[in-house]
Write a structure and sequence with these properties.
By secondary structure, the protein is α+β, with helices and mostly antiparallel strands. 66% of the residues lie in helices and 10% in strands. The protein is built from 12 helices and 8 strands. It has a 6-stranded antiparallel β-sheet. Helix 5 runs antiparallel to helix 6.
């Protein structure tokens, strides 16, 4: 913001019209308002503030604005303040008239005129002034947005009230601090400090809670780890607790990993032994199957031994049958012939008995011869038929005996072959039985060792899970510490910038030869200057 011209009429101690050309005063860069008490120095600053915001700073402000009118002004002269300035690249003219009681144009007495305001903007292209608004509220909002400060902020940052400055010079250190706090509105920084302290206390509480949770997890890990983990003798919130616990947890984790590796190796060995035992069990089962087969074979051999006499009798009978086979037809023919002969002799006797004696005596020789021939023919035919039938039966019986003989010979050969390798098979099977018994004993021993190994494996897995929870808690604690450090660093930076700003504000009031309000020295060899990083707690002037 840059002031160009100020015109006041009947304002403060000025009964008439006065003008201040700020462009002419600021040619050298800086200018000084000085004069005796009551000369109107403060009224000039009040007029600038009234032109901008429609009110004056400090105790001189009133709701009606009647105390702004000069007591030396003529009754018909109205109080007016016109301020011409450039802000945010725009050249504006603000005219304000406070309410006043003027004499009535007719009759006696006074009448009250309301306050009025005008806002105009200069158009450099048209070189004319353009009316913008006549509303007090619109003009106030426009000026506040352009300056970026309210009236209170403008009075605290730009205008230092004269009475407050006098009290500042006479006050002690504590009173100066309170006065500076009121002038520069440092209660916000006190609130910031309070909030930072609350955040610090909350963060410390979170850290203590995190340490307590970490110690609880550490105790559980110690119960699981045993002597492999040693807990520190520190209370929650003490420095180094998290690092010590993490170090102990790392050692316990390494030990647990080693134990888990050993348990895993033992588990692998147990699984390998179990697999070997399963294979041995399969071998034992195969051996048992072979033994059952061997027992069946022995039973069959015993049965064959019991049937050997019958087989030999059958062989003798078969041999006798083979020998008898050659003479069987002749014997049968003989028997058949004898039977036929006896039957023929009987028939002849019966026939002779029926013949007459004469015929019998006369033709006996012929009849006998004829009978013999007939009997021989009939006997030969019948004997041949029976011999043929018997021969067919003997051939079938011989074929059946030959088949049974071959079957018995094959079974006997299998039994002889199996008995030939029995001793070797028995030794091998006995060796496998002994190996299977040893494997079964070893499997029982490993089964006893397997349950502790499984418990240790479960404990190792629980330890890994707790290690993950510990890492997460440590990460949360680390983030909380980082946030606390960042907040503290920000608070220190804000405090340093604020102190530099206060020093720069005080240094701006120093004059050569005049005593410093803080230290009282009249020599100011290196007063601090305001820098872009200097923070006064208010928004900087945009001029």
């Amino acid at each position: 913001m840059r002031l160009h011209r100020l015109d006041v009429t009947a304002f403060g101690p000025f009964g008439g019209s006065q003008s201040v050309d700020f462009d002419a005063l600021s040619l050298a860069g800086l200018f000084l308002l000085h004069g005796p008490t009551g000369a109107g120095k403060t009224s000039v600053l009040d007029a600038v503030c009234y032109g901008l915001y429609g009110s004056v700073p400090g105790a001189r402000q009133s709701g009606q604005g009647m105390n702004l009118r000069s007591d030396h002004a003529a009754a018909g002269t109205r109080t007016e303040v016109r301020l011409e300035l450039t802000v945010a690249g725009r050249r504006l003219e603000i005219t304000r008239q406070p309410p006043w009681e003027r004499p009535k144009k007719r009759g006696t007495g006074t009448t009250l005129d309301k306050a009025q305001s005008w806002l105009r903007e200069y158009d450099p292209q048209a070189r004319t002034w353009k009316d913008l608004s006549r509303s007090h509220q619109e003009i106030g909002e426009e000026i506040t947005q352009l300056l970026g400060m309210s009236r209170e902020q403008f009075c605290q940052v730009v205008l230092l009230p004269q009475g407050d400055f006098a009290r500042f010079l006479r006050a002690d250190a504590e009173a100066r601090g309170r006065l500076l706090g009121r002038l520069f509105d440092t209660h916000r920084f006190a609130e910031v400090e309070k909030r930072l302290a609350e955040r610090r206390r909350a963060t410390e509480a979170q850290v203590r809670d995190g340490d307590a949770a970490l110690l609880a997890d550490a105790h559980r890990m110690q119960q699981a780890a045993g002597d492999a983990m040693a807990l520190p003798d520190l209370a929650p919130g003490e420095p180094g607790l998290a690092d010590t616990v993490l170090g102990a947890a790392a050692v316990a984790r390494s030990t647990a990993r080693e134990q888990a590796t050993v348990a895993h190796c033992r588990l692998l060995a147990a699984e390998s032994a179990q697999a070997a035992a399963d294979r041995a069990l399969d071998d034992v089962r195969e051996t048992a199957r072979l033994q059952r087969r061997f027992a069946d074979a022995r039973e069959r051999a015993r049965v064959l031994d019991e049937r050997a006499d019958g087989y030999r009798h059958a062989q003798v009978r078969m041999e006798r049958a083979r020998k008898a086979e050659a003479v069987a037809p002749a014997l049968e023919l003989r028997e058949a012939t004898e039977k036929e002969h006896r039957r023929a002799a009987g028939a002849e006797a019966r026939a002779r008995g029926l013949l007459p004696e004469t015929f019998a005596e006369a033709g006996a020789a012929g009849l006998a011869a004829a009978a013999r021939r007939a009997a021989e023919e009939l006997g030969g035919l019948e004997s041949a038929r029976r011999a043929e039938q018997r021969l067919a039966d003997l051939v079938g019986e011989r074929a059946e005996l030959d088949r049974q003989e071959r079957a018995d010979e094959g079974l006997l050969q299998d039994a002889e072959d199996w008995l030939a390798g029995w001793e070797e098979s028995r030794a091998a099977l006995q060796s496998r039985i002994d190996t299977a018994q040893q494997a079964a004993t070893r499997a029982e021993q490993l089964a006893v060792q397997r349950e502790p190994a499984q418990r240790r494996l479960g404990a190792a897995r629980l330890r890994d899970q707790l290690a993950g929870d510990t890492d997460a808690a440590a990460e949360q604690a680390r983030l909380a510490q980082e946030e606390a450090l960042a907040a503290k660093a920000h608070w220190l930076d804000v405090k340093e910038r604020r102190l530099n700003g206060i020093a720069a504000e005080l240094a701006a009031q120093l004059e050569d030869g005049a005593p410093c309000a803080v230290c009282g020295a009249t020599d100011h060899p290196a007063p601090p200057a305001r820098t872009p990083d200097t923070w006064t707690g208010k928004r900087r002037n945009t001029r």
